[in-house]
Design a protein that fits this description.
Helices cover about 25% and strands about 20% of the residues. By secondary structure, it is α/β, with parallel strands linked by helices. The chain folds into two domains: about 80 residues, Arylsulfatase, C-terminal domain (2-Layer Sandwich); about 325 residues, Alkaline Phosphatase, subunit A. Helix 5 packs parallel to helix 6. It is globular, with a radius of gyration of 22 Å. It binds magnesium ion (MG). The site of magnesium ion has 7 residues, from loops.
Length: about 450
């Protein structure tokens, strides 16, 4: 049989098999993950904001599912992002503090996310996805830790926080770098243009993906301080400079959705919109009705907006109150992409495909969720209960009846306190607490001599 004929017969054979598979499992979607920096629980119209005009993001919620009990694993950048990339608690991958015990990485850090970890980008790449990271990375600025060495085909962005350059007078940081892949292309870029430039890069990436599915990770620089927005948004929001950046991100989200429609792939693309940690209220964010915010383990620190849209699969105009986490994207997206998650290590995230697809009676797979502040375990949630374990006397809150954590009901529910204390002990043994090491932690990675990406003025 000539080769072409032989291949045709193979294809004919393959078609019915492929069709059968399509009936039982959803098709492999493109994935767009929009990740804000410091966007709080009440900073979007669809979560109750009266100050920020966010029609495009609200439309995502209209056409998709909005999660009310979605958590990141830390109330600051670096550890939260380590979890997003690895599906693990920060302490699991030892990214809960920098080499000097500080909470996030700083320019020229010796430490970074261990290249031995298999990131979500590496998983999707193995499943033949094209991958791009456009925006803030913050998991190490040395070459071996950069996105292009952690599963992303390409990178464009400011690799850490936008206040880690010359934003402050008397700053000792080197100039803020803008990178393309591993090369610094600008120092101290005009931050008012950053959201616009990220958006253009994202659109270009989407437009060039024709033959295979893609994973676009878009971790915005904003609304992290210092706040800068381009002309059409600067000074326009009722929410002040913070609101200006939120509204420009809303514009960006609208442009990305428009591009997906123009390319005819809006229905084949799963879009996630969320944030890395709760809002800093002193910078104009609101986490209402939650207590606390960025930097602490009250609900406002770790509970953030999360919207997921995938027409025909993720139900529209739905609100999901089940406990979900940013770690869950790892096994869930791997499942949807047909990627295999590593079996030689613990992954803390759970596959929440059943919750995404809105299966009747679907429940959170999490028995417990742990709130760490730097290295200390401070609280545990199980079901509707949250126990703060840091104070001498335990503080118990019923998050269903008391979302603002105002009423400590520990004395009325001693058995629940005991059950949650036992769950906290599980985390202490497994992940550690304070200077106590956990039995199943994996190491981060270090370079001997770190070089800052930029020097001089
Ligand atoms: Mg942040």
């Amino acid at each position: 049989m000539p080769l072409t004929q032989w291949m045709t017969s193979l294809l004919l054979l393959a078609v019915p098999l492929g069709m059968a598979a399509a009936e039982s499992t959803p098709p492999r979607p493109n994935i767009v993950l929009i990740f804000c920096d410091d966007l709080g629980y009440n900073d979007l119209g669809c979560y109750g904001s009266k100050e920020h005009d966010t029609p495009n993001i609200d439309k995502l919620a209209d056409k998709g599912t909005r999660f009310t009990d979605f958590y990141v694993t830390a109330p600051v950048c670096t550890p939260s992002r380590a979890s997003l990339m690895t599906g693990c608690y920060p302490r699991r991958v030892s990214m809960h503090e920098d080499a000097n015990g500080r909470w996030v990485l700083f320019p020229g850090a010796r430490k970074g996310l261990n290249p031995d970890e298999v990131t979500i980008a590496e998983l999707l790449k193995q499943a033949d996805y094209a991958t791009a990271c456009i925006g803030k990375w913050h998991l190490g600025d040395q070459k071996r830790f950069l996105p292009t060495n952690q599963g992303f085909d390409r990178y464009f962005g400011i690799p850490y926080s936008n206040d880690m350059g010359h934003a402050r007078a008397n700053s000792n940081y080197p100039p803020l770098p803008l990178l393309r892949n591993e090369t610094v292309i600008e120092k101290e870029p005009d931050q008012s243009q950053i959201t616009r430039r990220y958006t253009e890069e994202a659109i270009q990436f989407i437009k060039t993906q024709r033959d295979r599915p893609f994973f676009l990770y878009l971790p915005h620089t904003f609304p992290h301080w210092p706040h800068h927005a381009s002309d059409p948004f600067d000074g326009k929001s009722e929410g002040g400079p913070f609101g200006d950046t939120v509204e420009e991100i809303d514009w960006s989200t609208g442009r990305i959705m428009q591009t997906l429609r123009e390319q005819g792939i809006a229905k084949e693309t799963l879009v996630i919109f969320t944030s890395d940690n709760g809002g800093p209220t002193h910078h104009g964010s609101s986490n209402h009705p939650l207590r606390g915010g960025k930097g602490n383990t009250w609900e406002g620190g770790l509970r953030v907006p999360c919207i997921i849209r995938w027409p025909g699969h993720v139900p529209a105009s739905r609100v999901c109150h089940e406990l979900t986490t940013s770690m869950d994207f790892y096994p869930t997206l791997a499942n949807l992409a047909g990627a295999r998650i590593p079996e030689d290590r613990i992954i803390d995230g759970k596959d929440i495909t059943h919750l995404l697809l809105g299966e009747p009676g679907a429940q959170s797979p999490h028995i417990a969720f742990y709130y760490y502040r730097v290295k200390a375990l401070e609280a545990v949630r199980s079901g509707e209960w949250k126990l703060r374990v840091k104070s001498d006397t335990p503080q118990l809150f019923n998050l269903r009846r008391d979302i603002g954590e105002q009423h400590n009901v520990a004395s009325r529910h001693p058995l629940i306190v005991k059950r949650l204390q036992a769950l906290a002990d599980v985390a202490r043994r497994d992940l550690g607490d304070g200077d106590r090491k956990g039995k199943s932690q994996r190491p981060a990675d270090y370079v001997n001599e770190a070089e800052p990406l930029t020097r001089g003025k």
